[in-house]
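pipeline stage [seq->struct] | target=Acid phosphatase | organism=Rhodosorus marinus | residues=435
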Amino acid sequence: MRGSVFRVIGGGVGLGLLAAVGVSGRNGAAQADRGEIGAGPDDGDDLDLVMVHVVCRHGARTPLNTFAGGHDLGTKWLVCTEEKRNSLEADVEVKGVNGDPPGHVHNMDATPMPLAGGCFPGELTDLGKTQLYQLGKRLRKRYVHGASGGEKLLSPRFSSDEVYVRSSFQQRAVESAQSLLAGLFPAESRPEQVPVHVMDGKKETIFPNVLGCPRLMSLFLEAKKGWAAIEERDEIRDRLALLADEESPGIAITHYFDNLKSRSAHGLIIPEDVSQGLFDDIHRLATTEAAALFQDPVALRLSIGPLWKEIQNAHEKILKNEESEGGKRHKLVIYSGHDTTLIPMLLSLNAFDEKWPEYSANLVIELLRSRATGEPLVRFLYNDQVLKIPGCGGKEACQYDEFKNILADVSKEIQPEDCFDKQAGDGPSVGTSFN
């Protein structure tokens, strides 16, 4: 591996965003309990399922970076085939949000430097498509057929009255939504094109939006100063520097983690000098650095508060029997996002397990209602396992007031002055990492 330093060549809003700021869970935060999905919430069978939100990371992808010189250890990324694209994706029509024109989808094919083998940096692979297709099948089993501890919520055929899908502007996220939809609604049960909604980049709420909120980037850069205090950080960076013939201060942990994680997921060669122990250390340090960006409550609110607010607003509308966007009463809302969507969401619930969200990781938020009292409750699932959230009294389903209280600070409405310095002018000069 000597001499094979990393070089960023692809854009991204996940690891790419963290790399742009140079990238521990919150110290002392209570951890959520995880358990297998059973027949239903432990409050008994006197609950009806009202609405479901699914927030997922895109599937496995090629790395956003490669080794210096473009040689990439001779690896050929033969993992992006047209056959899988045709068989594991639903055709979609990209639409806007709230009456706005659709946001511009960042097309990986426009990247000037494809990887050896034909894939592009950050491209959803055959494995990634399969992961989201399987997730869609599991959601169909749970919410169409009522199996796996679920309840029959959706019609067997796709209906835009029931299902709403939103994706970030990254092509891998849009294609992940396509594969999820193909699993959730087989070809015979969906129209020729399914609408997927993409928001304008400056307004996006699916990930921490430094383009629309310059103050967020400032907070991230401030948080980065605290990385020096992370235990064993210098030691791990020094070990990597020896392997790569690179100065330790120039080591970007997330670059190494991104490339190695993608290789591992696809069964491709990993540099022989990277032992399992070193890989585990890189994973731990990358995750600790990422989580540290959100330790400031303001940074956490600006990063993920708008998305939580959207989810709560949707809950309130359906509980009041009001219509959502387009005069619909959606029962299932899907957000196709990134690791930088899930990390702050889990942190805001005090449920982050200090492990980087895997490809296709997903957080499911189920809105329930008691038949006896009419009171709403919320249940969380993470990667098909129940999350018992601290602040909910150890119960499997939170009272809705408990849920709102947990997120009371995070979901406060964001005002323009929260994001823009009064002297900064009309638009931000940061955020260009979102490419």
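stage status: PASS
auto-comment: The first helix runs from residue 15 to 20. The chain has twelve helices and twelve strands.
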